[in-house]
Automatic annotation (TrEMBL):
Residue ranges with Basic and acidic residues bias: 197-207
Gene Ontology molecular-function annotations: 2 iron, 2 sulfur cluster binding; metal ion binding; oxidoreductase activity, acting on the aldehyde or oxo group of donors
Record organism: Streptomyces montanus
Annotated ranges, domain 2Fe-2S ferredoxin-type: 9-85
Pathway assigned to this chain's UniProt record: Alkaloid degradation; nicotine degradation
Pfam families: Fer2, Fer2_2
Biased amino acid composition, Low complexity: 184-196
UniProt-annotated stretches for the region Disordered: 177-207
Name of this chain's protein: 2Fe-2S iron-sulfur cluster binding domain-containing protein
Key words of the record: 2Fe-2S, Iron, Iron-sulfur, Metal-binding, Oxidoreductase
UniProt cross-references to InterPro entries, sorted A to Z: 2Fe-2S-bd, 2Fe-2S-bd_dom_sf, 2Fe-2S_ferredoxin-like_sf, 2Fe-2S_ferredoxin-type, 2Fe2S_fd_BS, Aldehyde_Oxdr_Iron-Sulfur, Beta-grasp_dom_sf
Leader sequence residues: none
Length: 207
């Protein structure tokens, strides 16, 4: 009689640029591996069934709900959690925008919101349309990241505190900063405006 197949494997996860080798039950989700095995508790468990976005991380730069991802399937991929977003003590512009514009209340959904916002900004910069993009023809170009676009693109991230108005403002501000930094990198010019000015524009965009 053949031996029963093992339900455990030793895997190596690449999280925030660090490699972690750990034994996991094959049924372990990436969220549980992060939180329970690696003690990276920034990613939150809200619903544990792909409905709330609290567990959002980036896999190879794209958004994923880690409660629906098996840890064994994440081997070999670059995993970014909220713990890996800042550059040392320097907050990422998306984190700074959430701080500047009060994009949270209790903060439970915030790590997922920020990781999702990172994905949104990259997806938008790459020209991806959303469900509310009026003209999806390639020749129409990239839609502006309006409040409506941000709400649709962030709609997988729920906030029980209802901080949505500030979250939309924060994503708008972070997207502006990203665009300005990209422009600076491309042209070598520094034309970013003031943080205060950007906040005002972000508020107008979300109004
Ligand atoms: S905990 Fe993963 S989507 Fe809610
Ligand atoms: S800030 Fe409390 S759930 Fe979003």
């Amino acid at each position: 009689m053949a031996p029963a197949p093992s339900t455990y494997s030793v895997i190596t996860l690449n999280v925030n640029g660090e490699k972690y080798t750990l034994p996991v039950d094959h049924r372990t989700t990436l969220l549980d591996a992060l939180r329970e095995h690696l003690d990276l508790t920034g990613s939150k468990k809200g619903c544990d069934q792909g409905q709330c976005g609290a567990c959002t991380v980036l896999l190879d730069g794209r958004r994923a709900v880690s409660c629906l991802q098996l840890a064994v399937a994440a081997e070999g991929r670059a995993i970014t959690t909220i713990e890996g977003v800042a550059d040392g003590e320097q907050l990422h512009p998306v984190q700074q925008a959430f701080l500047d514009l009060d994009g949270y209340q209790c903060g439970y959904c915030t790590p997922g919101q920020i990781c999702s916002a990172l994905g949104v900004i990259e997806e938008h910069a790459a020209g991806w349309p959303s469900a509310v993009t009026a003209d999806v023809r390639p020749e129409a170009g990239t839609p502006s990241l309006s409040a409506e676009e941000i709400r649709e693109r962030m709609s997988g991230n729920l906030c029980r505190c209802g901080a949505y108005v500030s979250i939309v403002q924060a994503v708008a501000q972070a997207a502006e900063t990203h665009t300005a930094q990209s422009h600076t990198t491309e042209t070598g010019t520094a034309e970013t405006g003031t943080a205060e000015g950007r906040s005002d524009e972000a508020k107008e965009a979300a109004a």
